[in-house]
């Protein structure tokens, strides 16, 4: 169970995984390096509004006459950064709650899990809209809201994994040694549930990106003149017939990001599934080999 | 967004009875008391007892959700009267609005008044309209959009179910072959996209390039969504694209699992024809999960419709909610959000009941 790392070569051997990882790396590189490569400032007017692609402006201008290419190159950073922040917060809260609930073996477990489950009983977007209605349309309200929405899923997975791991001998040994709860959870339990917990990191990041982009699209997140792929699509939507690229550009980038994340995550989950199954087979075979009667070998090979 | 909702539902899918227990935050405090309270009934009428427990759990959840919702929308912003009127309002006007909104009453009394109003059909007046000196009942503002949204969601579901069952079954039967890869990969890709992206891409294709369909699906006052059915095409296609992508993946998984069962192998070994094996054994046993998938998609539509309607300016409940959030109308936001939450929770309960009725095997777990 120790050290189930992401095996990149294995992931790359699956066609969907190879395409996903390559695309993802490309989009992320563009999002981070983009601001350095942009020819114009995101607020600079460089031509008439809605200018179609021309020399020096491969994607034309947006509804205010700003360079679409420059805004496209600048617009990925916020998507990636806020998506990452929301996902990280969700994991911070979810892992803590899941560990405590899974290990507690007391009334704390149902109390924590049922509380968290309330968040699952309404649509994610509804929670975000209600929060924004109460606290105002700020990007940090969105980040916290998306983290809140994703937290129950993480907590559930962590709780189940913790329940399984906490019955292992090395955890019982640590209890006998008299280790304190934080170090018990942090040093004995947590490292051993990492592969299970990380299995859907990619999908959760994708969901964070989609939710934040959707709220930005509704005009309830980042305020203009910020360059953000989600916001760019909604700003230029009514001027789509003037210069389709002002909408298509950010739409394609956002689509590439979410699709590549999902392809890579799906391939990773499958490769993990296979290696976990292989691990189970190995363990079963070893257990059978240790048995005195050789007759058991054939059943071991089948499981 | 759809992804998250679908994934949540997946987590709850395999064991409806467990999901039912998990959905009730109140019951969590008292362990398995509901089971004991219905102990006698559970012995004689397990399905009825399950129904009562499930509905009770749903109502409990709804109560907690309504309290959180009320606090978030009506209390968190601070002085609602000041916010709605803006900073330039005179203190007298603010005081007058505070009085008419009953903001001077203690919080529990305000929440109870709001809850009683929701339950008795008195949905209150739009706060934003009150601030401008008009009285617009919330019900008057939302009953039209509510109907429009039901039309949109209804049409989507009618097309969704057959398409999804065919594609999901096909992918499961051809597991590992070309057809499966094509269906599964495109489903995975489309389901990764937010609704506004799919809607926007459809607008680019059908309006900008082909000039076939209008990018705006607004309905003039006094007309119904059916006055101009062409307006419905793009919103329905958007919702359909994403929900089919999800549904296909979920159905493929449940049919594939069913095909791996021992009774399918036995049926084949007994020499039954492949079509009989598929129809009578595999698909029949994938029925329970399929009901869950359909329920999840209806639930998905509750969230998906909010964005999709906004993309096309379709005058539904989603557009109304976003508008209410934009103009900061706490009363309208809380009413619409409560209706959507109640619908969402209700679908969950109905799906659990339907599964238990359709798959008798599950009743042993009640």
Short summary:
The complex is a heterodimer of chains A (303) and B (366). Chain A is mostly helical and 303 residues long. Chain A has helices at residues 8-13, 15-37, 68-104, 108-118, 124-135, 139-165, 169-177, 181-198, 201-217, 229-236, 245-290, 297-302.
How would you describe what is shown here?
Chain A is mostly helical and 303 residues long. Chain A has helices spanning 8-13, 15-37, 68-104, 108-118, 124-135, 139-165, 169-177, 181-198, 201-217, 229-236, 245-290, 297-302. Chain B has 366 residues and is mostly helical. Chain B is flat, with a radius of gyration of 24 Å. Residues 1-35 of chain B have low confidence and may be disordered. Classes of the chains: A mainly alpha (303), B mainly alpha (366). Chains A and B meet through α4, α5, α6, α9 and α10 of A and α1, α3, α6, α12 and α13 of B.
Can you lay out the helices and strands and say which pair or pack?
The complex is a heterodimer of chains A (303) and B (366).
Chain A: H1 8-13, H2 15-37, H3 68-104, H4 108-118, H5 124-135, H6 139-165, H7 169-177, H8 181-198, H9 201-217, H10 229-236, H11 245-290, H12 297-302
Helix pairs in contact in A: 2-3, 2-11, 3-4, 3-6, 3-8, 3-9, 3-11, 5-6, 6-8, 6-9, 9-10, 9-11, 10-11
Chain B: H1 2-12, H2 16-22, H3 25-29, H4 33-37, H5 39-44, H6 46-75, H7 80-85, H8 91-100, H9 107-120, H10 127-131, H11 138-173, H12 178-191, H13 195-209, H14 230-259, H15 262-269, H16 274-285, H17 287-312, H18 317-326, H19 330-358
- The residue ranges of chain A in which pLDDT falls below 50 over 5 or more consecutive positions are 292-303
Helix percentage of chain B: over 70%
Order of helices and strands of chain B: HHHHHHHHHHHHHHHHHHH
Percent strand of chain B equals under 5%
What is the CA–CA distance across the termini of chain A?
A: 18 Å
What is the helix/strand order of chain A? HHHHHHHHHHHH
CA-based shape of chain A: elongated
């Amino acid at each position: 169970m120790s050290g189930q790392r992401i095996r990149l070569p294995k992931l790359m051997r699956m066609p969907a995984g190879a395409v996903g990882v390559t695309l993802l790396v490309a989009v992320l590189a563009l999002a981070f390096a983009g601001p350095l490569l942009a020819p114009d400032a995101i607020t600079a007017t460089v031509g008439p509004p809605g200018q179609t692609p021309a020399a020096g402006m491969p994607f034309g201008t947006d509804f205010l006459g700003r360079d679409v290419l420059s805004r496209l190159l600048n617009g990925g950073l916020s998507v990636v950064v806020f998506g990452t922040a929301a996902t990280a917060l969700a994991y911070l809260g979810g892992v803590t709650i899941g560990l405590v609930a899974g290990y507690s073996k007391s009334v704390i477990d149902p109390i924590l899990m049922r509380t968290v489950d309330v968040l699952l009983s309404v649509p994610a977007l509804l929670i975000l809209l209600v929060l924004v209605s109460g606290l105002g349309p700020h990007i940090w309200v969105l980040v916290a809201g998306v983290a809140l929405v994703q937290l129950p899923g993480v907590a559930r997975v962590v709780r189940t994994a913790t329940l399984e791991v906490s019955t292992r001998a090395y955890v019982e040994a640590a209890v006998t040694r008299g280790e304190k709860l934080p170090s018990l959870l942090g040093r004995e339990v947590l490292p051993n549930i990492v592969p299970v917990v990380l299995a859907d990191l990619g999908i959760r990041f994708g969901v964070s990106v989609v939710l934040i982009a959707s709220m930005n699209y509704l005009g309830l997140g980042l305020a203009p003149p910020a360059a953000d792929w989600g916001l760019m699509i909604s700003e230029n939507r009514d001027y789509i017939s003037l210069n389709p690229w002002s909408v298509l550009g950010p739409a394609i980038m956002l689509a590439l990001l979410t699709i590549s994340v999902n392809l890579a995550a799906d391939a990773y989950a499958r490769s993990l599934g296979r290696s976990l199954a292989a691990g189970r087979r190995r363990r079963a075979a070893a257990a059978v080999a240790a048995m005195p009667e050789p007759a058991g070998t054939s059943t071991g090979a089948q499981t | 967004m759809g992804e998250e909702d679908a994934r949540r539902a997946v987590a709850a899918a395999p064991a409806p009875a467990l999901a039912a227990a998990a959905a009730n935050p109140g019951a969590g405090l008292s362990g398995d008391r509901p089971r004991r309270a219905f102990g006698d009934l559970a012995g004689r009428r397990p399905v009825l007892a399950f129904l009562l427990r499930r509905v009770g759990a749903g109502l409990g959840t709804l109560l907690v959700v309504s309290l959180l919702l009320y606090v978030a929308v009506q209390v968190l912003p601070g002085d609602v009267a000041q916010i709605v009127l803006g900073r330039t309002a005179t203190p007298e006007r603010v005081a007058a609005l505070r009085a008419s909104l009953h903001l001077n009453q203690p919080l529990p009394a305000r929440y109870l008044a709001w809850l009683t109003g929701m339950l008795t059909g008195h949905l209150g007046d739009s706060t934003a309209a009150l601030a401008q000196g008009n009285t617009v009942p919330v019900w008057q503002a939302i009953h039209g959009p509510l109907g429009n949204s039901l039309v949109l969601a209804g049409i989507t579901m009618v097309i969704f179910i057959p398409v999804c069952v065919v594609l999901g079954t096909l992918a499961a039967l051809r597991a590992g072959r070309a057809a499966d890869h094509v269906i599964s990969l495109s489903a995975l890709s489309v389901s990764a996209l937010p609704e506004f992206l799919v809607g926007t891409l459809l607008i680019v294709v059908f309006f900008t390039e082909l000039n076939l369909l209008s990018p705006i699906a607004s309905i003039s006052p006094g007309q119904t969504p059916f006055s101009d059915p062409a307006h419905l095409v793009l919103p329905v296609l958007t919702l359909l694209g994403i929900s089919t992508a999800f549904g296909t993946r979920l159905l493929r998984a449940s049919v594939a699992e069913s095909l791996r069962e021992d009774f399918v192998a036995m049926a084949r070994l007994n020499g039954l024809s492949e079509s009989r094996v598929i129809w009578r054994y595999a698909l029949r046993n994938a029925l329970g999960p399929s009901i869950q998938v359909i329920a999840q998609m209806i639930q998905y539509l509750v969230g998906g419709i909010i964005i999709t309607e906004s993309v096309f300016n379709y005058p539904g409940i989603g557009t109304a909610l976003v508008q209410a959030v934009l103009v900061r109308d706490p009363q309208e936001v809380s009413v619409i959000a409560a209706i959507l939450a109640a619908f969402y929770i209700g679908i969950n309960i109905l799906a659990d009941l339907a599964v238990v009725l359709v798959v008798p095997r599950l009743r042993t777990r009640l």
